[in-house]
Design goal:
- This protein is mainly beta.
- The chain has helices spanning about 150-155, 165-180, and strands at about 1-10, 45-50, 60-65, 75-80, 85-90, 95-100, 110-120, 125-130, 135-140, 185-190, 195-200.
- A hairpin with a 2-residue loop joins strand 4 (about 75-80) and strand 5 (about 85-90).
- The radius of gyration is 23 Å and the shape is elongated.
- Residues about 1-45 have low confidence and may be disordered.
């Protein structure tokens, strides 16, 4: 899970490219970070938490907490693939929003545009990273003749239902190799609906 903290200080302007896609909601000329009138040290305005990975068809939940006692936030919105989602204030200073990813969304790195609106001095735009990967449908072991496949696969930390990444697949390829039963281990992947089948070959 990754946590993004937006820190602001006096006289910090948001760049125009951060407003692309919703400039009709936030006039560029009037956008300015909240002026805290405190020390010169940057102050935390809010923090938001996203998971490390999401799979196609899953629901993304944005949990945003206002950490500055001085900030008065009136509205929080997010833009997913051109669709605007209004976050609701779930409890005092905590805002929640949900968006279901398309089931056929290709794997890759995307971003979500997030903005907060309050008094005339509080208009904040932010871009959040969003990585989409498939989940594992099944893990197979082929080519083994003398060792139980289950005994090998039980030692892996990649299981059906986990998020698939090449790093995880490679780490577990090495785990199989480190068990000492095989001189060479490779793996391949095959699509299985919107999931992926992982086959280790020995």
């Amino acid at each position: 899970i990754s946590t993004l903290v937006w820190a602001v200080s006096d006289d910090v302007l948001i760049s125009e490219n951060m407003l692309e896609g919703f400039s009709h909601d936030i006039p560029t000329a009037s956008v300015r970070m909240l002026n805290f009138d405190l020390a010169d040290e940057p102050k935390s305005l809010y923090e938001t938490v996203l998971e490390d990975y999401y799979a196609p068809g899953e629901t993304v939940t944005i949990n945003l907490r206002i950490t500055s006692e001085n900030a008065v936030v009136q509205a929080v919105s997010a833009i997913f693939f051109g669709q605007k989602v209004a976050l609701q204030e779930f409890e005092d200073r905590v805002w929640l929003g949900h968006y279901r990813l398309p089931k056929d969304l290709p794997s890759g790195k995307y971003f979500v545009k997030l903005y907060l609106r309050g008094a005339t001095s509080l208009n904040v735009a932010e871009q959040l990273d969003l990585e989409v990967v498939p989940k594992v449908a099944e893990i197979l072991l082929s080519g083994n003749k003398f060792v139980s496949a289950n005994a090998i696969l039980d030692e892996l930390n990649l299981k059906p239902g986990d998020y698939f990444t090449k790093i995880k697949a490679e780490v577990n390829r090495q785990r199989i190799l480190d068990q000492g039963f095989f001189e060479k281990v490779d793996y391949l992947t095959k699509p299985s609906g919107n999931r992926v089948l992982v086959e280790y070959q020995v």
